[in-house]
Amino acid sequence: MKTIIIIDGGPRKTFNTASMLKKFAEGATSVSDQIDVKTIRLYGLDYKGCMSCMACKVKGKATNVCKFKDGLTPVLEEIAQADGLVLGSPNYFGEVTGQMRAFLERLAFPWLSYNDYSLTAPKRMPVLLIETQNGTETQNNCNGYGSMEYCIAQALGQPEKLTAYNTYQVKNYTNYELAGFSEEAKRKYREEHWEDDLQKAFDAGKRMAESILN
Questions:
Q1: Which of 127, 158, 172, 209 has the greatest count of CB atoms below 10 A from its CB?
Q2: What is the pLDDT of residues 63-116, one digit of tens each?
Q3: What is the Cα–Cα distance from 101 to 105, expressed in whole angstroms?
Q4: Which pLDDT score is estimated for 135?
Q5: Burial class (CB within 10 angstroms; exposed 0-12, middle 13-18, buried 19+) of 2
């Protein structure tokens, strides 16, 4: 059995990011019953970012998996043994959520050697980065995963990226102070693009599963 771990860094259980990740999982499992997909919601865990305890750097005991004990520890241990990894997050203020950033600190800092500045994960694997954002493809200031994307590429392999632009923020704009947005324009864009975005996520799931099995 091959395992793909999905990390959902969004706060809402059924909205844009969660829907994209669900479609990815459907695509991956459609390939073979030998693909197991596990989704972990960061907002459901009790954890912190890197604590600078330096336990991963102790001489003779250095490790590339974080040793700080909290709700994230078993997740990081599972990822170390996984065959594929998917990270999904909405963009807040141009970057991934705080929960995703804290997770990435814990994931990547143990990879970093302060002897030669190399980045080494327990194993290399295919990675997909999913972002959902309010900005459009031509008008946005999003940095997404930022410098962490470089760390992922060096330690795990060059990730595939998938972005859903101009997404709905709420289901009914009339209930909120969101006059800066045209609900009509948002709805029109969603009707024209959202199903395609979901299909891209499904197809990405198929590609990752096929690459793992091959």
A1: 209
A2: 999 999 999 999 999 999 999 999 999 999 889 999 999 999 999 999 999 999
A3: 6
A4: 81
A5: middle
Distance CA 130, CA 90 (A): 8
How far is 191 from 139, CA to CA, in rounded Å?
A: 19
Cα–Cα distance, 45 to 199 (Å, whole number): 29
The answer for residues whose C-beta is within 8 angstroms of residue 194's C-beta and 6 or more apart is: 164, 167
Neighbours of 13 (CB within 10 A): 11
Distances (CA, A) of 212 to 5, 20, 31, 55: 13, 20, 11, 32
Q: Helices (H) and strands (E) in the chain — how many of each?
A: 5, 6
Strand-strand pairing, 127-132 and 160-164: parallel
Percent of the chain with pLDDT over 70: 100
Point out which residues pair with 40 in neighbouring strands.
7
3-state secondary structure of 40: strand
Chain centre to alpha carbon of residue 144: 10
Give the β-pairing of 84-92 and 127-132.
Answer: parallel
User: Which ranges in the chain belong to alpha helices (H)?
Assistant: 16-29, 73-81, 98-108, 147-155, 183-213
pLDDT of residue 148: 95
* Contact by Cβ (8 Å): 189, 166: yes
Query: What's the predicted TM-score (pTM) here?
Result: 0.95
At residue 205, the 3 state secondary structure works out as helix
8 A C-beta contact, residue 108 and residue 56: no
